[in-house]
Design a protein that fits this description.
InterPro entries: CAT-like_dom_sf. With 452 residues, this protein is α+β, with helices and mostly antiparallel strands. It is 33% helix and 22% strand.
């Protein structure tokens, strides 16, 4: 199915006064974050009673985006010297396409997530060396049936999951006709107030080496229904952790089976490190609202040192929970300025050295369950499908990564997983894993009902 670009332009904030605003300072955490684009696609089927054409919807989305950028103006700017964002009139790349086919057919034919990348404006999860790359890019794909796929690529330089969520909700509110006004716009800058930037930062190859790898990668999604989640939670319980949460239990379960896959593929037993993203907005003093822009999360690590063949889920669950608990209010004073930079880079450098020598496996995990639900209503109804495209294995891609998100089914959780091709091959045939995790099978009854 072919995707044809019909227009490409820069959408800029509607206010002409934004050039008067001061540059938006990056925080230390933003400075340390390598640029890569986090993608998501929201699919909307055209209802029977709708008389609005896809091109009209796209035009409306463009106009409401201008208003949303008035409030989230740093998203329209460009990064300078890894210190601040300015030039808010540069704008956001906005691409419109026509897809020669029906929405249901497109998704049905592209269950391999990498195939959805043609709906994106930029390549996903790929290291970007250009420090002046846009913070945000949009592609609106219109299908012959009138269905629409709104694809968003967000730069991790200033976007974390919470930032993505509040921006999408604000944009959607403007498109529905409300103003989506932020209660206290001054708190947009709060990240750099808590963690001021350092004036001169050398390139941090440690982070890049840990997160981005070359080689053949594969992305797959698996769904845990309510019964499977309850069973995993039960298995994760121990005397040390009597009430593990769903996130802790599933994180440990994914970590366990990724370790087993890596050991099967390499025929070696080595320690494994898990780095999980922890949102710190509510852990700061004073607390910050969700709409505070920036990478307001930390990445505490947990290390599984055992090289025994039998990997205990209970032990991993305890390690995951302890890692999450380690993010206390003490970090606020610790991560300040030059000293904060030294603390973070020292720890990452040590991990990177261990991993680069082949002495440990390294994994990252993010949970979008309480931040990014993919239910944004732009006046088109709730999305029929919310998808994260796959890594396409060109070069320097995000690897050994897990993302937990809400599944379309009630009380179910979807796990988005990217591993090496070899490791994924073992995971896809791991019978214990498949007892609880079902490979994502996209069902399009809703699409068919709405489009027929």
């Amino acid at each position: 199915m072919q995707v044809h670009i019909t227009s490409s332009q820069m959408v800029k904030p509607s206010s002409y006064k934004l050039h008067l605003l001061k540059p938006f300072k990056l925080s230390l955490l933003d400075q340390l974050s390598p640029i890569n684009y986090v993608p998501l696609i929201l699919f909307y089927a055209k209802p029977h009673d709708s008389l609005i054409e896809g091109s009209q919807v796209s035009q409306q989305l463009k106009q409401s985006l201008e208003k949303a950028l008035d409030q989230f103006y740093p998203l329209a700017g460009r990064t300078k010297n890894n210190l601040f964002i300015s030039d808010y009139d540069e704008g956001v790349p906005y691409v419109e396409t026509r897809v020669n086919g029906r929405l249901a057919d497109f998704v049905d034919q592209n269950e391999v997530l990498e195939a959805m990348n043609q709906l994106l404006p930029y390549r996903p999860f790929c290291y970007v060396s250009n420090l002046t790359a846009p913070q945000l890019a949009i592609q609106v794909n219109v299908f012959e049936c009138g269905g629409i796929a709104v694809a968003v690529c967000c730069s991790h330089k200033i976007f974390d999951a919470s930032t993505i969520s509040v921006f999408l909700n604000s944009w959607a509110a403007f498109n529905r006709g409300s103003n989506g006004e932020i209660p206290n716009p001054n708190l947009l800058h709060a990240s750099s107030r808590f963690f001021p930037p350092v004036e001169s930062m050398p390139p941090n190859t440690s982070i890049e080496g840990l997160l981005f790898n070359q080689g053949s990668l594969k992305t797959r999604s698996f769904v845990f229904d309510a019964n499977a989640i309850a069973a995993v939670v039960s298995k994760a319980k121990s005397n040390s952790l009597e009430h593990p949460s769903r996130v802790v239990s599933l994180s440990a379960f994914l970590w366990k089976h990724a370790i087993q896959a890596a050991r099967s593929a390499s025929r070696t037993l080595k320690p494994a490190i898990l780095s999980q993203a922890v949102n710190i907005r509510q852990r700061l003093k004073p607390q910050l609202p969700d709409y505070s822009i920036g990478n307001l999360f930390l990445l505490p690590t947990s290390t599984y040192n055992s090289v025994e063949n039998d990997i205990k889920l209970t032990e991993l669950a305890y390690l995951v929970r302890e890692g999450e608990k380690s993010v206390t209010s003490d970090f606020q004073d610790l991560l300040q300025g030059e000293e904060g930079f030294k603390v973070i880079t020292k720890e990452l450098g040590e991990i990177a050295e261990t991993v680069s020598k082949g002495n440990a496996e390294f994994y990252t995990l993010s949970s979008w369950l309480n931040t990014l639900d993919g239910k944004e209503d732009f006046g088109l109804g709730k999305p029929t499908l919310f998808s994260i495209p796959g890594v396409d294995s060109h070069n320097h891609e995000f690897s050994n990564c897990f993302i937990l998100k809400q599944a379309m089914q009630h009380n179910a959780i979807e796990a988005w997983i990217t591993l090496s091709d070899k490791d994924m091959g073992f995971l896809e045939h791991d019978q214990e894993f498949l007892t609880f995790a079902s490979p994502l099978r996209l069902k399009f009854d809703k699409f068919e009902d709405l489009e027929s």
